[in-house]
């Protein structure tokens, strides 16, 4: 049985006080959830988030990390730093990191390696742009991102991998992939993993959908057999909305 996961990527939102308020609201609203819940506040609030969620089943992820162990990389955060405050999961490859911070497939492969060497769980994001879909290139773009970003991972390390398919045209736009488009792509991803590794790896890996998931569309997206949950942006910033989405699986 694959894990069902709903993760909230808070991006650059919520100061410390706001973070504490939202986390306390989530703790009260999500007590009965069977789904694995992950929240990714900004770096400055990760330590507080870990403390606040200590007695709950909600876990904390970082939104990014550097590939080096340590050194002269002003402004960067290492895997060891994250682990030292109790953060065991990291989002890598988000389209905003790729687009605004020049993160390439090669750089991401290196971050993936570092995170896995530290026994962290990665939420690896990828997805095509609107132009790719219009030209019917979306399958090859996604396959290429997977090949370059995660297909070098040793079979035994796939237990620490969560994939997040996020079509760039659906992120923060209010436009979402239709349930059919999401299922079609997720099935393609799973088949590609089965062909590259094994049916067992493909069956086990959770593939999340991200891109304008809201309380009113979560259920139909999550109902697809190859959609194992969601990576939620805007709607994760409100406890009520996030709880509805988390309970929609
Ligand atoms: O990481 C989350 C995704 O970028 C989705 O964001 P969104 O739900 O605001 O479209």
UniProtKB/TrEMBL annotation:
| Catalytic center residues | 94, 166
Provide the protein's localization: Cytoplasm
Give EC number(s), comma-separated: 5.3.1.1
Pathway(s) where this gene product acts:
Carbohydrate degradation; glycolysis; D-glyceraldehyde 3-phosphate from glycerone phosphate: step 1/1; Carbohydrate biosynthesis; gluconeogenesis
Q: Name one GO molecular function term.
A: triose-phosphate isomerase activity
Q: Which SUPFAM superfamilies match?
A: Triosephosphate isomerase (TIM) (SSF51351)
Which processes are annotated in GO (biological process)? Answer: gluconeogenesis; glyceraldehyde-3-phosphate biosynthetic process; glycerol catabolic process; glycolytic process
State the reactions this protein catalyses.
D-glyceraldehyde 3-phosphate = dihydroxyacetone phosphate
Per its UniProt record, what Pfam families does this chain match? TIM
Q: Which domain of life is it from?
A: Bacteria
Q: Which GO terms describe its cellular component?
A: cytosol
NCBIfam families this protein is in? Answer: tim
Described by its record, this protein's role is as follows: Involved in the gluconeogenesis. Catalyzes stereospecifically the conversion of dihydroxyacetone phosphate (DHAP) to D-glyceraldehyde-3-phosphate (G3P).
What family does the Swiss-Prot or TrEMBL record give for this protein? Belongs to the triosephosphate isomerase family.
Subunit structure as annotated in this protein's UniProt entry: Homodimer.
- Stated name of the protein: Triosephosphate isomerase
């Amino acid at each position: 049985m694959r894990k069902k996961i709903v993760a909230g990527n808070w991006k650059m939102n919520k100061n410390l006080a706001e973070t504490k308020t939202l986390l306390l609201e989530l703790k009260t609203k999500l007590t009965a959830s069977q789904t694995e819940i992950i929240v990714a506040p900004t770096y400055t609030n990760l330590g507080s988030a870990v403390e606040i969620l200590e007695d709950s089943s909600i876990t904390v992820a970082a939104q990014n990390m550097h590939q080096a162990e340590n050194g002269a990389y002003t402004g960067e955060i290492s895997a060891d730093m994250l682990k030292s405050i109790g953060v065991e999961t990291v989002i890598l490859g988000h389209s905003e990191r790729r687009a605004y911070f020049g993160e390439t497939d090669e750089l991401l492969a290196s971050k993936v390696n570092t995170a896995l060497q530290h026994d962290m769980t990665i939420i690896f994001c990828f997805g095509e742009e609107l132009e790719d879909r219009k030209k019917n290139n979306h399958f090859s773009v996604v396959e290429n991102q997977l090949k370059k970003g995660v297909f070098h991972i040793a079979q035994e390390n796939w237990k620490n991998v969560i994939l997040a398919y996020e079509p760039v045209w659906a992120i923060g736009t209010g436009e979402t992939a239709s349930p059919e488009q999401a299922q079609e792509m997720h099935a393609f991803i799973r088949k590609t993993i089965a062909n590259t590794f094994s049916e067992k790896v493909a069956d086990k890996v959770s593939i999340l959908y991200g891109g304008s998931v809201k309380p009113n569309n979560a259920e139909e997206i999550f109902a697809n057999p190859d959609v194992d949950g969601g990576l939620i942006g805007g709607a994760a910033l409100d406890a009520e909305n996030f709880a509805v989405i988390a309970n929609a699986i």
